[in-house]
């Protein structure tokens, strides 16, 4: 039986944490094969929780998720790669080890063409870099190569380009785009960094407080800005602070508009409780709330992992 197309679907997906707070609420999406989807939303919107559910790292209600036609938790997933916070904080990439050895350990010799392509795209010095002596940005490049050497059909990315410089990130995004154009594969990417993303996503998902406020093909979603530009030829601000639209792509304008409206809808933080769950990371860095409390998970300095809404 041929493998199913790498689609990503959710059906009224709701997830509740053990303390009975809501992680995501009534999310229905249908992302086609070869799509490149951006998850957009403020901190605490539920993007990480959604990605972890799609990756099968949290048990969703039966029948509420299908990735490549199967339930990611009960059926297991072939060809699905999830790169998130626990992957970023893996202690092995901070030890005195060479890049060539690391890449070999994750299949570099099995997929030499992909290995060499990623080394070139990410500008990695295989011969001289030692992982304990490189910068955070250089370390992140090696991690990306490690995570992507083995061919994947669905790639779930949780803001893992934060340490890359502008050029490296542009090259990496271009490589991801080519992957979806030449292979049967799909990407879902949560990020706050919009540099070089104009024209990259095929679909947008706007999340707020655990729910999806809107989603669809990027061209359709962008009509919101096109319409406001037409309606504001006299110099209106498109819902932004005066001058904020200058220097931004239309995608950037749209995201700023969404986040501004979300902030107004949410109201002051002082009138709400915390909106997310945190990874306990032992001070190694992360995407938000951090704590040095928790049980040791095996890696030096890395604490027990909890959910975090980003």
TrEMBL record:
Q: Which CDD domains does the protein's record reference?
A: ABC_ATPase (cd00267)
State the InterPro entries in the record. Answer: AAA+_ATPase, ABC_transporter-like_ATP-bd, P-loop_NTPase
Which residue ranges have biased composition labelled Basic and acidic residues?
266-275, 290-310
All residue ranges annotated as the ABC transporter domain in the record: 8-234
Keywords from the UniProt entry: ATP-binding, Nucleotide-binding
User: Pfam families recorded for this chain?
Assistant: ABC_tran
UniProt key word ATP-binding = yes
The protein's matches in SUPFAM superfamilies, at most eight in alphabetical order, are given as: P-loop containing nucleoside triphosphate hydrolases
User: Where is the region Disordered?
Assistant: 266-310
Please provide, alphabetically and separated by semicolons, the GO molecular function terms listed in this UniProt record.
Answer: ATP binding; ATP hydrolysis activity
Write the protein's name: ABC transporter I family member 20
Gene source species: Rhypophila decipiens
